[in-house]
Write a structure and sequence with these properties.
The chain has 252 residues and is an alpha/beta fold. The protein has 12 helices and 5 strands.
């Protein structure tokens, strides 16, 4: 009969979905007894552990849903390798206040200068602040939009994209788009205009975006929306990836 309260407690904590309570309550009770902590202090510590673990699980879930190709933080970025990049601006953006203001970010620079790393780092920061994030390359996004259109699920997919507080579109300009693809991508930017934040990375300066979208009119309309509330990150310089590889080889 002495086991009945423990069995009931375990059952109740599982039903209430309090795994940290279940895992830690006994160990913490002994610790609090040793330290002379009263029952209010004990419960406060236990509740704090549950909240910390719950927030950690929610962050992990947001990161998983974002579909990042890799987990990269801003702490691991070598800002000295790209002198043109304003480090203070990036760290300020990591506070995610631009998302509350529904502003965009455009990272421009040659291939290999770390644009994707910065975008991933800002995306990770947003996940840690409780914001929904989505990551996709421009070519993959256009492919999925066209596939959704063919399968008559375009509206559903567009609504999914619109729900992200932050949408990261990587590698815009690497592949020229078809007329239909360009128009579908333009719709994504239009639907997010002043409704959600978008990070775009591109190896092309603005005056060459017409090569990707194939239309001066469409490119002009897109840039008008995208740059209305924008933070531009200039990332010109030698290849960041190449420099990192050289450093790793030197340290071996």
């Amino acid at each position: 009969m002495n086991d009945v309260p423990q069995i009931l407690l375990t059952h109740h904590l599982k039903s209430l979905r309090l795994p940290t309570f279940l895992r830690e309550h006994d160990k913490l009770a002994r610790l609090c007894a040793t330290e002379g902590v009263d029952h209010i202090g004990y419960l406060a510590r236990l509740a704090e552990l549950e909240l910390i673990d719950r927030e950690g699980r929610m962050i992990e879930r947001r990161i998983k849903l974002a579909k990042f190709p890799a987990i990269k933080s801003l702490d691991s970025f070598d800002f000295k390798a790209i002198p043109s990049l304003n480090k203070m601006q990036v760290l300020e953006l990591a506070r995610c206040e631009y998302i509350e203001r529904r502003e965009n970010i455009i990272a421009l620079g040659p291939s290999g200068t770390g644009k994707t790393h910065i975008a991933l780092g800002l995306g990770l920061a947003a996940c840690r602040q409780g914001l929904s994030v989505g990551f996709i390359t421009a070519s993959a996004l256009v492919h999925e939009l066209m596939e959704a259109r063919d399968e008559k699920t375009l509206l559903r997919y567009q609504k999914k994209l619109a729900k992200y507080r932050l949408l990261i579109i990587d590698e815009l300009g690497f592949v020229p788009l078809s007329k239909t693809g360009a128009e579908l991508l333009f719709e994504v930017f239009s639907q997010r205009y002043e409704c959600g934040s978008t990070i775009v990375t591109s190896n092309l300066p603005f005056d060459e975006w017409t090569e990707t979208f194939g239309s001066d009119r469409l490119t002009g309309a897109l840039l008008d929306r995208l740059t209305h509330h924008v933070n531009i990150l200039e990332m010109n310089g030698d290849s960041y990836r190449l420099n990192q590889s050289k450093k790793r080889n030197t340290n071996k």
